[in-house]
Amino acid sequence: MKWNKFVLVFSLLILSFLACSSDDDGGNPSGDPIIGEWQLDRVIFEGTELSLQPCEDLETFIFEAEGGFFNERYSTAPHIPDQDCELQNTSQGAWIIDDNGIYFINLQGDFVELPVSINEEAGELTLNETDPATGMTQQRIFVLQSTNE
Fold first, then answer.
1. Phi–psi pair at 77, nearest 5 degrees
2. Per residue in 110-143, pLDDT tens?
3. What is the phi/psi pair of residue 64, to 5°?
């Protein structure tokens, strides 16, 4: 009889561990702050905030815990009746972070540095871009919409 109680208690204990997942706390499973869906909030060009064009604020980046990402950009759709915005382009690839905290993305087979900074408290991700030909800078600031759970 004691053996049956032990097996029952042990089985319940195992089942309770199996029922829990690593992301039950509502955070992202890998703990990396880049994980989640980010939506474009504002653009700063050479230190001046620009007004977003119609539909531009629909741009999203989705970074997955498994190392994949998706990006969607939208534009106005004047030639499509009853539709204000249309999907302009999509891209996808893989992302990694090195030991120094620098993010890299893989598009078309090459890993390139993704100049990104994350302000976890404000829920903001900033892509820092520099035009290699002119040296002009632009920051595309995204706000966290949701974490991938």
1. -125, 65
2. 667 778 889 999 999 998 888 889 999 999 999 9
3. -100, 150
Q: Which residues contact 112 (CB under 8 A, 6 or more apart)?
A: 104, 105, 106
Which residue matches tokens 């097996």?
7
130 within a domain of the structure (yes/no)? yes
**pTM value?**
0.71
Q: Per 3-state DSSP, what percentage of the chain is helix, strand, and coil (rounded to 5)? A: 15, 45, 40
Establish if 81 belongs to a structural domain.
yes
Residue 58 maps to a domain: yes
Q: Is the pLDDT of residue 25 over 70?
A: no
Domain membership of residue 98 as a residue range: 27-146
Q: Which residue has the higher pLDDT, 30 or 143?
A: 143
Q: Is residue 2 part of a domain?
A: no
Q: Are 8 and 16 in contact (CB under 8 A)?
A: no
**Residues ≥6 apart with Cβ < 8 Å to 98:** 104
* CATH at 112: 2.40.128
